[in-house]
Amino acid sequence: MKKSLTILLFALGSGLIVQAGPGAPGKIRISITPGTQVETSFDLAYLTDNVSEKSTTESVRLRRGVAMAPIVRSLGTGSQIVYIWRTPFLVSQGETLEVTVNVAGKENLFKPVTAKIKGKSDKASLPGFIDSIYRYQLEITTKEAMDAWLEKNSRLLEEAMQAAGANADDRAVLLAYASYMKLARRLPVVKHQPELAKDANFSKWLFGDFEISNPHFSRLADDNVVPNITRFWWEGRKLAEPDLREEFLFVDLIRFAKSERLKQETAYNWVIMELKHKKFTPALKNVYPMLRQNLKPSARTKNIDSLYQAYSIMDRGKPAYNFVMKDASGKVVRLSDYKGKMIVMDFWADWCKGCIANLPEFKKIAGAYKDSADIVFLTIAWQDQGTEDLWKELSTKHNVAGPNNMILMRNEDSKEYQRFFDGYKITGVPRYIAIDKEGNWLCNQLSYPMTAMAEQIRNLYDEQKYE
C-alpha cells in the first residue's frame, strides 16, 4: 500500500518536479529548466506571517529560450499549502520546497510530474493527493454511498500522511483542507435526497469533521479556496436552518471563525455584496460595530471602513444631496423644490430592458396618489450623450412624459454629474429610492418586485403623513 500511495502522490501536478527537504525555515526555491520551449506564465501563491492579509500571489513569466535565475521566497511560520501553477504543495516549518519548472522540451509540456525522492519529497504532494481522492463522483447520490466513499478516502489519507512522515502541524493543515473537500462532496447528496435536511442529525452528518472555527484554514494560500469554504458552510447552514436570516449567519461566522484570513475575506465580500444589491441597510449598520470589534486592522478593514463611511451618507434621516437637473421642458429642478413632499424616484435607462418593463408599473403606483399633494413620483433617465430624442420617445411610449420626468446625461467631466453619483451611489439601474418631506433619506433602496415596492411606499407614506 505504501508503495502504491507514493507512486500516486508523485503522479500529481502539472509540469513540475518537486523536492521537499531540509533547508531554511519556510522557503520556496523554484528553478526553471534551461531551454524553455514556450511563452507562458504560472502563478505562485504563498503565505507570510501577516495572516490577516490576502496571500501573496505572483505571476511568473517564462520566455522561450531565456534562462532564469532561481526564484526564492520566504514563507510564514508553520506548515502551509502553497500553490504553484494551480497545483497545491505542502511546506512544513523548517523546510524548503525545491521546485523545478520543466518545460524545456515538447514532451514535458503536458506530462504529469515526475519526482525524485529526496528527504520527505512525497509529503509535498499530499494536498494534491487530497484533491485526487476527493474528486467529485457524479454517481454517488445517496447518504449511505457517500459515507462509505468518504470513510474509504479518510483511511487512504491517513495511510498517506503516515507514509510521508507528516508531522502534527502538517496533519492539522491537511485535515482542515480535507474537511472542506468532504463538506463540498456531501452537499450535492442533499439535492438527490432533500428529506435528509429534515433529520434531527442532519447538521452533524453534513458537516462531519468540518468546523468553521478551524484556525488552519488560514494556512491555505489559494485565495479562491477561502470563499469556497465560506460558501459551502453557508449553504449547509441554510439547508439545516432555512429560516436563518443572512446577517445572523454572517455574524455567526465572524464571531466563531478563528481563521483571520477567512473572516477578513468573508467580511469584505459580504459588505461589497450588501452595498451593491441593497445599498446602506439597517443590517449593515447593525453588523458594522461587530466587524470593528472582531477583525484585526488590515488593508481589508480599511476598505470596509471606507465603503461604510461612503455609503452611510444614505442612512435614514441624513440629508440627501440637493441635486440640480433639467426636466422634460428644460426647466432647472432641484431636490429642495419638493420640500414638504415625500419623493419617490425611479432611475432607468433606454438600454435597461427591466427598467423599461417596470415603467408602466411605476406609473400605476404613482397613479394611486394622484390626488395627494404631499407626495411626488419622479422618473430619472440615466442616458448617454446624444440619446435625448430616444429618451423622449420612450417616455411618451410608456406614459411617463411630463414635468416629473427628467434626464441625467452621462458626463464624466461634469462636477455636478460626479456629485450626483457620489450622493446617490447609482451603481446600476433600475434603482428606486424615497426621500422624506424634509429632503432627508427615507429609503435608499426600495423593495422589489413592484408589488412589494407598492406596499413599502404605502407604509412609508403613512409614516410621513402622521409625523
What does this structure look like?
The chain has 467 residues and is of the alpha+beta class. Helices cover 41% and strands 18% of the residues. The protein has a seven-stranded mixed beta sheet with strand order 10-9-13-12-11-14-15. A four-stranded mixed beta sheet has the order 1-8-2-5, with no helix packed on it. A four-stranded antiparallel beta sheet has the order 4-3-6-7. Strand 11, helix 11 (353-367) and strand 12 (375-383) form a beta-alpha-beta unit.
- Please state the oligomeric state of the protein chains shown: single chain
Treating each run of at least 4 consecutive H or I residues as one helix, how many helices? 14
The CATH homologous superfamily of the domain at 324-465 is named Glutaredoxin
Provide the CATH architecture of the domain at 324-465: 3-Layer(aba) Sandwich
- Poorly predicted ranges: 1-24, 110-118
Strand content: 15-25%
The CATH topology of the domain at 324-465 is Glutaredoxin
What is the highest CATH level, the class of the domain at 324-465?
Alpha Beta
Number of DSSP strand runs: 15
Radius of gyration: 29 Å
Pfam family, one: AhpC-TSA
Signal peptide: 1-20
Domain Thioredoxin: 314-466
Keywords: Signal
